[in-house]
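User: Continuing from earlier, I have the next pair ready.

Assistant: Great, send them over.

User: Here they are, in order.

Assistant: Folding the first of the pair now:
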Amino acid sequence: MRPRALTTFAALAGTSVLALAGCTGGGQADKAPAADVTAAPDYSGTLSILTKFAGEPLEPYFQDLAAEYEKQHPGVKIQLIQETDQSIKDKTKTLTASNALPDVYFTWTGNWAENFVRGAARPT
């Protein structure tokens, strides 16, 4: 590398390291224990799932899928919330605003999802 290119590279690398160091910021992630990848999975608790497939023909599919999962994992309860294509939009807005989104939910890409990302990025 030429000296000027090397200096520019070093400056960029230094700035990147400082920026990344600032991301750690002493938040909860610093105090979280490392995951034990050798531990057996704990199949217990409640898993909330919001779908946009209420009604025929897909509602029974998700009900059967949830029941089968609960059968295979007796310690897990599936809370299945099924909405229609339009009602899920209203429900998602309400749940997002109240910071009560389910564990798993369906949404759209593009501008629809971007609105939620932008809204979540605003300081409270």
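And the other member of the pair:
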Amino acid sequence: MDRIPMTGRGFRALEEELKHRQSVERPRIILAIQEARAHGDLSENAEYSSAKEAQSLNEGRITELESIISRAEIIDVTKLTGNTVKFGATVKLVDEDTEEEKQYQIVGDLEADVKFGRVSISSPIARALIGKKVGDSVEVNTPGGGKSYEVVEVAFR
């Protein structure tokens, strides 16, 4: 069984989703199935079919979350140190062409969200950054073409 690296924040988010699906969604769907059954003939009952499909999707996600949580390898980013980029690092970059600053934290695949500056450890930018230090230049192949960045800060928070 492969371990799944993630930050504490990512792990807590998965636990919260699991708890919500088990304690809120599951009872809501069961109630919807019971109400749909009360309408009679199940063979042509759209509400029943819809509720059963929602139940199947919810139970599938619960199983998936339980599997992920059981294989999670939680990495406490606050205990990491050093000046090279690795999992959990928050990296400040400057685009060498436009001088635009960007900041990313390298996180597990399941918690990546570029809108919040969290990039997956398996993303092209993270793979290019791993092992780099402040002052290093890095070339990243993006869908829009190659980009050059300079690493200006590496922090663990």
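Worth noting for the second one:
The helical segments are 8-37, 46-71, 124-129. Strands lie at 4-7, 72-75, 90-95, 101-107, 118-120, 137-142, 145-155.
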